[in-house]
Amino acid sequence: MAKDEEILIIQELKNAETKEIAFEKIIRLYKERLYFHIRRMVIDHDDTNDILQDTFYKAFINIETFRFESSIFTWLYKIATSITLNFLNKKNRYPILYLSDKNTEYLTSKLEDSDFFDGDELQKKFQKAILKLPKKQQLVFNMKYYEDIKYEEMSEILGTSVGALKVSYHAAVKKIEISINED
User: Fold this and answer.
1) Using an 8 Å Cβ cutoff, are 88 and 108 in contact?
2) pLDDT tens per residue, range 123-133
3) Which domains does the chain have, with CATH numbers?
């Protein structure tokens, strides 16, 4: 979103008469990107939709607490990431930071059974390799590779230093290459 457009939406969000219309604009602008950000972590379409709805609900009810120090994009991604990680931890699919073999198998079977995945075998190998990564590397890889989020923005979203994020991303790339070449 252009800076001028974001400033206009922020002004509309601060006005009680235009708040809902402005928030609808935000949903239209970020719904698809947030959907795929969440989907890459949870794999399941229905769970993704539930988390996306929770993300927008939480953002809407907390819009007054948003200080507008970061971009709307960064704020929404931080909310979506937090809700998604909480969801995964509650479902015991993941330990806090790392995937277990059991969880990787579960998510891989979700990927195999999904009616919403239409990729070829190489794309499935690629997705399976991503699922084998430790949670943090998986998250960083998805945000950089798919969304091309700048490390500085990722740092705000994840609360991690830029240097650590770069290390995580490059380690993830190497592990994915090894995993794809093993199969």
Assistant:
1) no
2) 878 888 898 89
3) 1-91 (1.10.1740.10), 97-183 (1.10.10.10)
